[in-house]
Amino acid sequence: MNRSAEKVTIKRMAKEDIDGVIAIEEKAYGAHHWSKDSFMQELNNDLAWYYSLFDEKGKLVAYAGTWHILEEAHITNIAVDKDCRRKGYGEALLKHILDDCYKEMIKYLTLEVRVSNKAAIRLYEKYGFTSFGLRKKYYQDNNEDAMIMWTKNIFYDEFKIPFTEKSKKLEEKILINV
After folding, report:
1. In a domain, 1, yes or no
2. Fewer beta carbons under 10 A from the terminal one: N or C of the chain?
3. Active-site annotation holder among 63, 89, 124, 127
4. What's the structural domain count of the chain?
């Protein structure tokens, strides 16, 4: 463990986190963000796994969500407060999602991402996601296309070995409390 690593806490999202999540949503997505009701419904959805990430000071600065359906997980969103980007928080959430998928014996992950979101695409590619096509005019706010991304089976060595190596590098930068 790197003693200079920043410490963050990731926990399952709770109802008391939703106002902070909405604040991140509004900054990240403007008028086209999810509503408070949408997040409340997700917290009551048995398929949904949502996470909140808190910085060293205990401030909610990022969140993520997935749906676990049989042996697949669909990442619904990962968002980081605009003032806290480029610190590895999105990567920490993605790693946490993958860790939970290993625990739950989920083999594959999928997601849609805006084709213009190059930073997110690079992060997903870094963690073994590849593009399998586009959903044309997927985003309602501007009709932007979404790239559909999938992982290979995460239990195969060709995925698991690089994931383990990337996880160790991340842990040098960020100490994740769960």
Report:
1. no
2. N
3. 124
4. 1
